[in-house]
UniProtKB/TrEMBL annotation:
GO terms for molecular function: UDP-glycosyltransferase activity. Keywords: Glycosyltransferase, Membrane, Transferase, Transmembrane, Transmembrane helix. The keyword Transferase applies. The chain crosses the membrane at residues 554-582. The lineage of its organism: Eukaryota, Fungi, Fungi incertae sedis, Mucoromycota, Glomeromycotina. This is UDP-Glycosyltransferase/glycogen phosphorylase. Gene3D superfamilies: Glycogen Phosphorylase B. It holds the Pfam family UDPGT. It comes from Gigaspora margarita.
Length: 593
C-alpha cells in the first residue's frame, strides 16, 4: 500500500520539477528576446505632455556650483522635454546650461571671504555641530530678504513646482508651501533626513557604518548624539519660526517637518554610501554626471604628455586648510617626485592662498627649495592652476591618483573614472565621505589634524602599487556608470509630480492630509500629490504605524506564556524536590532504626 503511494508522489515531484525547469527556461528566453533599447521603451510610454504645468523654479543658497550642478543637470533633461526652468541662486556663474532663466540673489560670498567664521571650522577637529549653526545662522540672517526675492520671482515666473537644494535653503520650501505648490528636495547628504541607527556620521562623533562598534558606542550614536543634535539646532528652528511668522509661513517643530511628504532626491549611490532601507519618497538618483565636460587645456595636455604618473590635487572650491598643512602637502609632493613614486603633480590652488605658504621649503634631506619658483610654475614637475577641468583630467590615463577633500561631486568623478583617492577631508560631509570611500576599498585617508609627510608619501605609494585599489576601483566604476543613468528617472519623477499636482482635486488633498478629519495640519497640504509614494505608517500615528500595539501584544503574550512555563517548572521541581527529600528522610529514619 505504501510503496505505490510513494511512487506516485515521486512522479508528481518529477513533473513539478520538470515544469519548473521549463518555465524558468521560457522566462529566460522571453527576457532575451525582449529589447531593452531605450528608444523602444520611450516610444511605448510617452504620455501626453500638452496640459502638464511647465514651470520649474530651481533654488539654491549654499554650496555654489557643486550644489547647483545636480538640479541643473536634471533640469537640462526637462528643458529638452519642453519645460521652462528658472534658477534662484547667489553668485555670478557662467552657467553651461542654455535656456535657464537666472535670477541672481546678490554676490556669492565664498568661504575665503568669511574666514573669521570658517577658520575655526576648517582648522579645528570636526566633531561638533558647529558648521550647521554657521550655515543656519547665515540662512536666518538672509531669510526675509530671500523670501521677498523668491516671492517677486514667483510672481513673474509663475512656478508650478519648486526644485530646492536642501542645504540651508528653508526659504525655498517655505515659499512653495506659501504658494501651495509642490516642492522637491535634492541634496548630496541626507544623514539628517532619515534616522537609521546603524548609519551615523563623523560630524556627530560617530562612524558612517556602526556595524562593528561596541554597545556603548552604538547606544551613544543612536540615541544621545541625535538628541544632542536636535537640541542644539532647536535654537535655529525657533529663530526661523519667528521670521516665518512675519511673512505668514507656518512654523515647524524641526528641520524635517516641512519635507516630510516631499520627494527627496539624493545625489549618491549605494556602494559609495553605506546601504540602508530607503522609504519610497527618498530616492538615490546619483551619481549625477554631466553629459559633457570642459576639455583639458593645451598647457595641461602638454604637462600630462611628459608626466606619465601624475597626481591630481584639489581641495575643491569651498574648503581650505592651514598654512602648515599646505607646506606639508607641498613638501610631500616634492619628495614623492624626488623618490620617483610619482613624476608630476597638478595642483588646483587658489591664488588668494599663495601667501599662506612659507617662502622656503626644507626637505627631509636638508635641501632648501624656494617656494616662489613652484608657485610661478618654474618647477618642471609641479603645475599649479587656479581652476582645472577636473573630470577630464581624472579621465586621463596619466593621472594615477587624486588627492581630494572628498566632496561628493569630486568623489563621484573619481569613482566614475576609477581613480584611486587620497582623501584629506576638511569639513561638512567630507569626513563621512572619506570613511565611506575607504570602506569601499578605493581610498586612503589623511588627517588634517595630524598631517605627516611620510604618511602622505607611503599612502600614495600604496594606492599606486596595491592591486586591491584597482579591483575595487573597477567595481565602483561599474556601479557609478550604471547609476549615473538615474538622472533621467529623477526628471521622470518631476514630470510625474507636475502631472499629479494637476490631477489632484482639492478634496483628495484634504482627505490625504487629514484636514477633513478635523486634525488640520496645513504644513502637509502642498505635498500630498504624491500619495502613491507616502507610506501608510506616516498616517497611522506612532504606535499603530510602528505596529507597537501588535508586537507589544505578542511580546506580552510570550511573557505570559514564559512566566506560566517557568511557574510550572518551578512547581514540578518543588514537588520533585520535596518528594526526594521525603524519600531521603524515610531512608535515613529506616537506617537509624
Ligand atoms: C557677471 O560677471 C561678468 C564678468 O565676470 C560681468 O560682465 C557681468 O556683468 C556679471 N553679471 C552680473 C549680473 O553681475
Ligand atoms: C574618458 O576617456 C576615454 C578614453 O580614455 C574616452 O573614450 C571617453 O570618452 C572619456 N570620457 C569622457 C566623458 O570624456
Amino acid at each position: 500500500m505504501i510503496r505505490p503511494l510513494y511512487r506516485f508522489l515521486q512522479i508528481l515531484l518529477g513533473i513539478y520539477l520538470l515544469c519548473n525547469d521549463l518555465f524558468g527556461r521560457w522566462i529566460i528566453l522571453s527576457v532575451k528576446s525582449m529589447n531593452y533599447g531605450d528608444e523602444k521603451i520611450s516610444k511605448r510610454i510617452e504620455f501626453d505632455r500638452t496640459n502638464i504645468p511647465k514651470n520649474i523654479l530651481v533654488g539654491s543658497y549654499f554650496g555654489g556650483i557643486s550644489h547647483l550642478r545636480p538640479p541643473l543637470e536634471i533640469s537640462k533633461i526637462l528643458i529638452e522635454r519642453g519645460y521652462n526652468v528658472a534658477l534662484i541662486a547667489p553668485g555670478n556663474f557662467t552657467l553651461n546650461y542654455q535656456n535657464i532663466k537666472y535670477f541672481q540673489i546678490g554676490e556669492k560670498v565664498g568661504t575665503l571671504d568669511l574666514r573669521e567664521i570658517y577658520d575655526e571650522v576648517f582648522k579645528k577637529d570636526y566633531t561638533s555641530y558647529h558648521t550647521f549653526s554657521i550655515t543656519s545662522d547665515l540662512m536666518n540672517s538672509d531669510y526675509l530678504k530671500l523670501f521677498e526675492i523668491y516671492m517677486k520671482v514667483a510672481s513673474e515666473f509663475k512656478p508650478d513646482l519648486f526644485f530646492c537644494d536642501d542645504g540651508s535653503n528653508e526659504v525655498c520650501f517655505d515659499v512653495a508651501w506659501k504658494l501651495k505648490k509642490p516642492s522637491i528636495a535634492i541634496c548630496t547628504w541626507f544623514i539628517f533626513r532619515l534616522y537609521t541607527p546603524y548609519r551615523s556620521d563623523p560630524s556627530l562623533g560617530c562612524h558612517v557604518n556602526m556595524e562593528h562598534e561596541s554597545f556603548i558606542e552604538r547606544f551613544r550614536c543612536a540615541i544621545i548624539a541625535p538628541i544632542q543634535y536636535f537640541y542644539q539646532t532647536r535654537k535655529y528652528t525657533n529663530d526661523l519660526n519667528k521670521l516665518r511668522a512675519i511673512v505668514g509661513v507656518a512654523p515647524t517643530s524641526n528641520y524635517n517637518d516641512r519635507l516630510r511628504d516631499s520627494l527627496y532626491f539624493s545625489d549618491s549611490f549605494f556602494g559609495f554610501d553605506v546601504p540602508i532601507h530607503l522609504p519610497p519618497l527618498v530616492q538615490d538618483v546619483g551619481p549625477i554626471m554631466q553629459d559633457e565636460y570642459e576639455p583639458i587645456t593645451p598647457d595641461l595636455s602638454l604637462f600630462l604628455e611628459k608626466h606619465k604618473k601624475t597626481m591630481l590635487v584639489s581641495l575643491g572650491t569651498t574648503v581650505y586648510t592651514t598654512p602648515k598643512n599646505y607646506a606639508i602637502l607641498l613638501q610631500s609632493f616634492t619628495e614623492a617626485i624626488n623618490r620617483k613614486i610619482i613624476d608630476g603633480v597638478i595642483w588646483s590652488f587658489d591664488q588668494r592662498l599663495h601667501n599662506s605658504l612659507p617662502s622656503e621649503l626644507i626637505l627631509s634631506d636638508g635641501t632648501i627649495i624656494p617656494v616662489n619658483e613652484i608657485l610661478n610654475n618654474r618647477n618642471p614637475n609641479i603645475y599649479i592652476v587656479h581652476y582645472l577641468p577636473q573630470f577630464e583630467l581624472l579621465n586621463h590615463t596619466n593621472v594615477k591618483v587624486f588627492l581630494s577633500h572628498a566632496g561628493k561631486a569630486s568623489s563621484n568623478e573619481a569613482l566614475y573614472t576609477a581613480t584611486p583617492i587620497l582623501s584629506l577631508p576638511i569639513a561638512f560631509d567630507q569626513m563621512g565621505n572619506a570613511e565611506a570611500l575607504e570602506a569601499s576599498g578605493v581610498s586612503l585617508t589623511l588627517s588634517k589634524q595630524d598631517l605627516q609627510v611620510e604618511d602622505i608619501i607611503s599612502k600614495i605609494e600604496r594606492l599606486l602599487s596595491e592591486d586591491s585599489f584597482k579591483l575595487n576601483g573597477k567595481r565602483m566604476q561599474a556601479l557609478a556608470m550604471i547609476n549615473s543613468k538615474r538622472k533621467y528617472r529623477a526628471a521622470d519623477m518631476i514630470e510625474y509630480l507636475l502631472l499629479a499636482s494637476q490631477l489632484t482635486s482639492e478634496s483628495d488633498d484634504a482627505l490625504i492630509s487629514g484636514i477633513s478629519k478635523g486634525n488640520i495640519n496645513e504644513s502637509e497640504f502642498t505635498n500630498s500629490h504624491l500619495r502613491e509614494l507616502i507610506t501608510p505608517d506616516t498616517r497611522m500615528g506612532f504606535i499603530r504605524g510602528q505596529y507597537l500595539d501588535v508586537f507589544g501584544s505578542l511580546l506580552g503574550g510570550i511573557l505570559i506564556i514564559l512566566s506560566a512555563a517557568i511557574l510550572l517548572v518551578w512547581f514540578i521541581v518543588r514537588i520533585c524536590v520535596s518528594f526526594i527529600m521525603l524519600r531521603f528522610r524515610i531512608l535515613q529514619k529506616t537506617k537509624k532504626e
